[in-house]
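Dear colleague,

Thank you for sharing your sequence with our group. We've completed the structure prediction you requested, and as agreed, I am returning the results in plain text so they can be pasted directly into your records. Please verify that the sequence below matches your submission; if there's any discrepancy, let me know and we will rerun it promptly.
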Amino acid sequence: MEQASYRRSAAARAALHGLIRPLALSCLLASSACQPQSSLPSPSDTPVATPAHKAAPAVLPKSNSRTAGGDSFTGLRLISEQHDSLGQRHLRYRQYFRGLALWPGETILHFDSNGQLLGSDGRLVTPADDFTTEATIDAARAAEAALAALGAGWQAGHSELLIATGDSAPRLAWAVAVQRGLKQRTVLIDAGDGALIRIIEETWS
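Please find the predicted structure tokens below.
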């Protein structure tokens, strides 16, 4: 990986800082090794606390936004870190809002060997303050809607609440894992009205 491919102008780096600083960071969490990550959040993804990248706090300040009522974390969680032959570090973060993962919601920050930010990949989305994280329909109804959208022969598995982003405004959604034989999909169902948002050829593995 060439260092020049990650360099950005000073203006681009300033814009990146302006996007990230408003997001609270409860703690910098990293996995013990950088494994290929699905763009969908995984229920089995439980980062382990390790010594964090020393340059990261300057870009992502620490803050605790948890409440006594449960996990209300809003911000970025470090899920993997990769080192390359040039001594650069590439930190992959997943974005959360009030304890729910955003999809798509991954951002990769690239640092040089001195800990200076080179650039980023991905984008950050901040739902409105009045965005509700309470589902109107339950997981069972979401699974029924997912199977109805796909047709006969599919079986529903795990369902997880998340915030679906994209070209439209953020929407609270159920991500329903489905399978037919060797085929696996994830179906996003609106958690408010049960409408189909998207069928994704990715799984929760």
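Summary note from our side: Strands lie at 75-83, 89-97, 100-111, 117-122, 155-164, 171-180, 183-190, 196-200.

Kind regards,
the structure core
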